[in-house]
Design brief:
Blueprint (H helix, E strand, L loop, with lengths): L2 H40 L1 H34 L6 E5 L5 H12 L4 E7 L1 H10 L4 H5 L10 E6 L5 H12 L4 E5 L2 H43 L1 H9 L4 H44 L11 H30 L1
Antiparallel strand pairs: 1-3, 1-4, 2-3
Helix pairs in contact: 1-9, 2-7, 2-9, 7-9, 7-10, 9-10
Length: 323
């Protein structure tokens, strides 16, 4: 008869233990958060050097990304997909040229077609510096043919543009087709190579930042090996012991990521005046942008996670050795 009351009394005691355990766990997290920050503030030079190395390493991928994004936009503005010049034979008159232009406008891979008469072509040459003397020697004879400017539909790849150029050359009324497809292919290949290089460098620099945090935490654990040994002898768990070091890794990553974002903004500000002069030289056709805000805001949390990972790996290895 006495066993039932004892069992009934044990259940409330075990239920009360859970809130106490959670309260102790959360209290130790708060203490570890503050203690790790105090440790970093207690050695300002070492903390500053670690954060500076991480910030510089992580700012380089951001700078490369900024450079490549603007090269891509410059290629678009300066004619990564320019109009295709189609020159008709000299014996082709205006009606035949207009008929071919109307035929090309009906194609799904053509965005627009502009017809230029021989007189319009002569006027454009006259506006160019150095051609006025040569044009005076022509008297009243205009040797220029009708010409078409064919703009491919946006989004066409190099292969589709190449097929369009090939079909234009097969037209009976066409004498010559002027296309810069090879230039476009070279630019696309260079941009693809640049993106791959940025990814490889970003991976290496992220690994370097991981190693920096890991080595800093390793040195900190080694300097407190006696204290950690006493805690383990008293029955403290490994998770309890390594918790302050994990928060230290988070602080290193957070501060390093914030510094990397600030350095990237500094690079943008340093290039603002030359970029404005370049845009003015191209009459506003260039649109040079900066890093998106979401990317700059995402860097500190991502690097904080990276710092936690580095501290987690090293502290687990160090505590296994200490045990």
């Amino acid at each position: 008869m006495s066993a039932q009351p004892e069992t009934a009394a044990a259940a409330p005691r075990s239920g009360r233990r859970q809130p106490r355990r959670f309260a102790g766990w959360s209290e130790h997290h708060g203490w570890s958060l503050a203690a790790s920050l105090r440790r970093l503030a207690g050695r300002p030079l070492g903390t500053l050097l670690t954060v500076a190395v991480m910030g510089l390493a992580l700012s380089l991928p951001l700078a490369f990304y900024l450079f490549l994004a603007n090269v891509q936009s410059m290629g678009d503005a300066l004619g990564q997909h320019p109009a295709i010049g189609v020159f008709l034979k000299v014996d082709q008159a205006g009606p035949q040229a207009e008929l071919l232009a109307s035929k090309l406008r009906d194609r799904a891979d053509v965005a627009a077609v502009t017809l230029k008469s021989p007189q319009q072509g002569l006027d454009e040459l006259a506006a160019m510096q150095g051609f006025s003397g040569a044009l005076h020697a022509l008297d009243d004879h205009n040797p220029l043919p009708y010409a078409l400017q064919v703009e491919p539909r946006p989004g066409l790849d190099a292969a589709a543009v190449g097929r369009l150029v090939g079909e234009l050359r097969e037209e009976r009324a066409v004498d010559m087709v002027q296309d810069s497809a090879r230039w476009r292919q070279r630019l696309d290949a260079l941009l693809a190579l640049g993106h791959r290089i940025v990814l490889v460098l970003a991976g290496l620099l992220v690994l370097a930042a991981l190693l920096v945090v890991g080595n800093t935490v390793r040195v900190d654990i080694a300097s407190r090996s006696e204290e950690i040994g006493v805690l383990l002898l008293l029955g403290a768990s490994r998770a309890f012991v390594r918790r302050p070091y994990l928060y230290a890794g988070i602080w290193y990553g957070l501060f390093g990521g914030a510094l990397a974002a600030l350095l990237a903004l500094g690079i943008e500000l340093a290039l603002a005046q030359p970029v404005a002069q370049l845009t003015q030289a191209y009459e506003g056709r260039l649109h040079v942008g900066g890093l998106p805000l979401w990317l700059l805001l995402a860097v500190p949390p991502a690097t904080a996670l990276l710092g936690w990972l580095g501290a987690r790996l090293v502290s687990a290895w160090q505590l296994r050795r200490a045990a």
